[in-house]
Write a structure and sequence with these properties.
The complex is a heterotrimer of chains A (586), B (234) and C (272). Chain A is an all-alpha fold and 586 residues long. Chain A contains 16 helices and 2 strands. In chain A, a hairpin with a 2-residue loop joins strand 1 and strand 2. With 234 residues, chain B is mostly helical. The chains are: A mainly alpha (586), B mainly alpha (234), C alpha+beta (272).
């Protein structure tokens, strides 16, 4: 049991002291495989997510090769191409980004940062990972079924998704939907943990307004995910009914290749509403943890408190709330009632205001700081560049008339890769370089890290910035090849070749990263407990890596907010959250 | 989607109320607390499991709100043909009410420390819930026998989907109930089972309320009512 | 130092790329010049913000890089600055939104007197239908589709008998006349897009959607499908020919009506 003697009279005890019985693994299996320790679960999540992410990375190379050298690869046909883009998109958005930010970073950082010993429901937390793994395996299985994985696009729009004109109609789509349903069930188990741990298991003195922004970001993203994933769940279940049981939820009367199908009366737009009711919050499910983490990276490595902490918290809350009111901006040209456009355009552009405030505050944190250009800091800077770029192109697409010519072109592809592809992934990299010493006790190799950063950042920018202009030209997305269209000049192909070269180079840099990840595990410089001299609680653990129960005998007590860097008059340029104030002269 | 947004607004209002307790306007950098003036964390004294159940119920509410939104959107198309609700559903509703009552009884007994009554209440509640599920399956069978197949009409499809999902949630509840009953069986103290019994009871009442909402929606008069409303609006 | 320079190069390089890019939108051929103006306005505002933020970041990275003895200032917030930035952003967003909504209103409001043309998509082909001499399109339903009636017209609707049916061939439009496209699909969701017209709208099976524009330039333009519709999505094209009224009339006279087409299939069946 937890030692509760530290409480002074009149102080409310944190609820977790009574509720959580510490989990003690007894064997190797319960310590590393069926483990209930959030830190181990986090690593399991991270490895699985990175593993499946590698598949998506390889798929992206195949996509790029096809686009640069159309009809040079006999192995890539139009149906293969659609399967590649579908699986690439779905894996990246759901199985990599969502799982890594919430299952990976959430599990590792929440208990440590709020000063808890573990998640509040460790057993459910463990189940969450295993259900997630099952979802990933079902997804992978679809590659090996007859007909291959689905090629319906990651948006899975019916009727196309379940008809025979789309590859993977036999098994691919069924396994895709089943895998998503499993993922959502698994995520809900984990999500309950993240939310309730933040609500109930904060240590003494850790008020909500003393939480690091990382925790705020992950917390809010989890709330969004818990409320948004049911929409995808409903859509998937209903589409499975349509596909397997022959109902007509989304299926109108259809003549497919001259055959009348037995569907009738259903509404394809109903699915689109459900999908985007999940899909737009999903953008923020990925973005909010990135916002939070990057705030902490910038603050720590600029040795300066985050500028406008309160505004940052309010902005996270406002963005979270607004993200449920903007979904149909993905549907301006979907054929829905066009007058909805006025409402959704307004809410969409309004959400730009709190987002812009966050950007200003990151940049203003740099102002008059003491900027250490470490690898995490560099990745934070690259996040600012890609996020500002992608956020601003969002203002194009959120405005219905501008969206009309640009929607479903390469402009959209470039936009979302910049804003919810590159930006969050750079934060993930920065976060891995930042917290790797805590997880393993060793620093990652700096030189390899610098190389990884510069190639990834400049390469990714070279991929996606020019891609916008293909979209302006009118090149549609999800095209196997551009073909000989009168309005597309030959130079567009040259540009595609350039983009592909950049993509392959960036891909190579990721191999260097993986090498660094493994190499440093054995030969990295020993890190000590707090190599970045950071204030937040996870750096103040008695052991590094933190042991089971995180905190040794006594839970830490928090005396200050998470950003006491360069406090005037302090001995060092950081004051840990659990450092008691020096007694005032009476 | 308006129904979903309405329910999300309710959840949002609860969240806003909670946030308003968190002193969001405070300036944390000015509040360096000495040990004596460290405030409580603001974590509520409610047990974590209860909060967890509350959050889970919010997720379930959203799930069904979305289904009901979809139900109303799909209802507006021309091919909608409401099917009659079997009389059996009234009987099943009665079973579910009794099941809820039994669990309420178990909860009260747990609070007073009468473990035998707790066991009785749990077993009665579980059996009644099983009977409800059997009744639902029987209702499905009746409908099938009368030719109201799943794929015949979207109204039928929604009926099977909604009742099925409700049943699955009840099934999950039965697992929790079995675990709780097992605790009682092993002779744990009232203090150790009180929370579990309470959570089971809350979940049961929730599922009962959800069933009543679904039942109301699935009976034919709702379709007529919706038609009338739409005519009044247009 | 290097980092700051590279950030400056990224910002300036982006601006240069934008100015020098040979990849730009196609010359417009419809009345939607307003859309181009709105995009240009958006480029100006967002381009300014992007350059300003990145250059400021680069300056900070250069000026406040770690050096021995440097200490960061302790500056939790600056209410006034934050409010000014918020207001400035709100103004910028308003400047984008207001013209956008104004043009959107025009985009969704079809002018009176626009002639109707129906576009019917299927995997993976475009079909068109003109209202014929009576100026009215006959009723249609996907359930009527058959090999002799590929567009699913209602054979009992007298309005449909003189409708001109164009199956898998180019659509001709008269120059300078507003046209309202009624969009319909018989299988999956497609999207009608002619880059030169700027206009785009999905074709959703089960409902009829619309989009309108006025062709302002003669020529032959390519119609693309821009909503993923299956394996041959990338190859689903058609031509739209914009021509003077006289040529257009001559073309229309050469086309077959629904009545003619069904009579022909009936004959063909009879001779078998």
């Amino acid at each position: 049991m937890v030692d509760t003697t530290i409480g002074a009279a009149g102080v409310i005890q944190p609820a977790e002291v009574k509720d959580v019985e510490l989990y003690h693994p007894k064997s190797w299996v319960t310590k590393y495989v069926f483990c209930q320790d959030a830190k181990v679960i986090a690593i399991q999540y991270a490895i699985t997510a990175l593993g499946i992410g590698l598949v998506a990375l390889v798929l992206s190379w195949l996509i790029r090769l096809q686009l640069a050298f159309p009809s040079s690869f006999s192995a890539i046909g139009p149906t293969d191409y659609l399967q590649f883009i579908t699986m690439h998109g779905m894996i990246m958005v759901i199985y990599l980004l969502t799982a890594l930010f919430l299952g990976g970073f959430g599990n590792y950082l929440i208990p440590l940062m709020v000063g808890a010993r573990d998640m509040v429901f460790p057993y459910v937390n463990m189940l969450s990972y295993w259900v997630y793994l099952l979802a990933v395996l079902v997804l992978v299985a679809s590659f090996f079924m007859p007909g291959g994985p689905t090629g319906a696009g990651w948006t899975l729009y019916p009727p196309q998704a379940i008809l025979s004109g789309t590859p993977g109609q036999d098994w691919g789509i069924i396994l895709m939907l089943a895998s998503l349903i499993l993922f959502i069930i698994g995520f809900t188990m984990g999500g309950l943990n993240y939310v309730v741990t933040v609500l109930q298991a904060r240590t003494r003195g850790m008020t909500m307004m003393r939480l690091p922004l990382t925790v705020w970001g992950i917390f809010m993203a989890t709330v969004l995910a818990l409320l948004a994933f049911p929409a995808l769940f409903v859509g998937c279940v209903m589409m499975l009914f349509d596909r397997i049981l022959g109902t007509s939820f989304f299926m109108p009367a259809i003549v497919e290749m001259g055959q009348h199908l037995k569907y009738g009366g259903g509404s394809p737009l109903l699915f689109q509403h459900l999908f985007w009711f999940f899909g737009h919050p999903e953008v923020y499910i990925v973005a909010l943890p990135a916002f939070g983490i990057v705030s902490d990276l910038i603050s720590t490595h600029a040795r300066k408190n985050i500028f406008g902490y309160r505004m940052m918290v309010w902005a996270i809350i406002v963005i979270g709330a607004l993200s449920f009111l903007v979904w149909a901006h993905h549907m301006y040209v979907s054929g829905m009632n066009p007058y909805f456009g006025f409402y959704f355009a307004t809410t969409t552009l309004v959400i730009a205001i709190p987002t812009a405030i966050k950007v200003y505050n990151w940049v203003l944190t740099l102002w008059r700081g003491d900027i250490h250009l470490t690898v995490p800091m560099l990745f934070a800077l690259s996040f600012i560049v890609t996020f500002v770029n992608g956020g601003l192109t969002g203002l194009f697409l959120g405005n219905p008339v501008v969206d009309v010519p640009l929607s479903d072109t390469m402009f959209v592809v470039a936009h979302f890769h910049m804003v919810m592809g590159m930006a969050p992934i750079f934060v993930i990299f920065g976060a891995i370089y930042h917290w790797y010493p805590k997880v393993t006790g060793r620093m990652m190799n700096e030189a390899l890290g610098q190389f990884h950063f510069w190639v990834s950042f400049l390469g990714a920018y070279a991929i996606y910035f020019p891609m916008h202009y293909l979209g302006l030209l009118g090149v549609p997305r999800r095209y196997f090849e551009m073909g000989d269209m009168a309005f597309i000049p030959q130079s567009a192909t040259t540009l595609n070749i350039f983009i592909t070269m950049a993509a392959l180079t960036v891909g190579f840099a990721q191999m260097v990263f993986l090498f660094n990840l493994i190499w440093s595990l054995f030969w990295g410089k020993p890190a000590g407990s707090n190599p970045w001299r950071a204030t937040t609680l996870e750096w103040q653990t008695p052991e590094t890596p933190p042991g089971h129960g995180n905190w040794g005998k006594e839970l830490p007590v928090v005396y200050r907010w998470a950003y006491d860097y360069s406090v005037p008059g302090a001995k060092e340029d950081f004051v840990p959250q659990n450092q008691p104030p020096t007694p005032r002269a009476a | 989607m308006s129904i979903t947004l309405l329910l999300l607004a309710v959840i949002g209002a609860i969240a806003a109320w909670w946030l308003s307790q968190q002193r969001l306007m405070s300036k944390p950098w000015l509040e360096v607390g000495a040990i004596d003036d460290v405030r409580g964390t603001g974590a509520s004294p409610v047990p974590a499991a209860t909060v967890g159940l509350g959050v889970f119920l919010a997720v379930v509410v959203t799930l069904f709100a979305l289904l009901i939104s979809a139900y109303f959107m799909r209802m507006q198309t021309a091919d909608w043909a409401q099917m009659p609700a079997p009389k059996l559903l009234w009987f099943n509703t009665g079973l579910l009410i009794l099941s809820s009552v039994a669990l309420q009884y178990a909860q009260v007994a747990a609070r007073r420390g009468r473990m035998e009554d707790v066991a009785g209440g749990l077993v009665a509640g579980g059996l009644l819930a099983l009977a409800f599920m059997a009744g639902q399956l029987l209702a499905w069978q009746q409908l099938n026998a009368e030719g109201y197949f799943l794929a015949t009409n979207p109204a039928n499809a929604f009926f099977y989907l909604l009742t099925g999902l409700h049943g699955l949630h009840l099934l999950g509840g039965l697992v929790a109930l079995a675990l709780t009953a097992d605790k009682v069986w092993r002779g744990l103290e009232p203090g150790q089972v009180r929370l579990s019994v309470r959570l089971c009871a809350i979940y049961w009442h929730f599922l009962l309320a959800l069933w009543i909402v679904l039942f109301t929606l699935l009976t034919p008069w709702v379709g007529d009512f919706a038609t009338i409303c739409r005519q009044l609006l247009t | 130092m290097t980092t700051a320079i590279i950030l400056v190069l990224v910002a300036l390089g982006s601006v240069l790329f934008h100015i020098l890019s040979p990849w730009w939108w196609t010359p417009i051929a419809s009345n939607w010049g307003y859309i181009d103006h709105t995009i240009n306005l958006t480029f100006w505002i967002t381009g300014f913000v992007f350059t300003a933020i990145i250059l400021f970041t680069a300056y900070c990275v250069f000026r406040f890089r770690h050096q021995p003895g440097r200490q960061a200032i302790y500056n939790p917030e600056n209410k006034r600055l934050e409010w000014w930035l918020t207001i400035g952003t709100a103004v910028g967003v308003g400047a984008l939104l207001a013209p956008g909504l104004f043009v959107w209103d025009q985009f969704v409001t079809v002018p009176k007197g626009a002639s109707e043309v129906e576009v019917i998509a299927q995997q993976w082909q475009w079909n068109f239908r003109l209202p014929g001499e009576d100026g009215r399109l006959g009723a249609s339903d996907t359930r009527n589709v058959s090999s002799s009636n590929p567009l699913g017209l209602n054979p009992n609707d007298p309005n449909g008998r003189d409708d001109v049916v164009i199956e898998g061939d180019a659509l001709h439009l008269p120059l300078g006349k507003p046209v309202k496209l009624l969009l319909r699909s018989i299988d999956v969701v497609h999207s009608f897009y002619v880059p030169e017209f700027r206009a785009k709208m999905d074709l959703v099976p089960g409902v009829v959607t619309y989009v309108w524009f006025t062709p302002t330039r003669t020529g032959t333009f390519e119609t693309l499908c821009t909503e993923l519709c299956g394996a041959a999505h990338y190859n689903m094209r058609a031509k739209v020919v914009v021509e003077e009224a006289s040529e257009y009339q001559a073309w229309v006279r050469k086309q077959k009506t629904f009545a003619q087409l069904s009579a022909r299939t009936r004959q063909a069946k009879g001779t078998q």
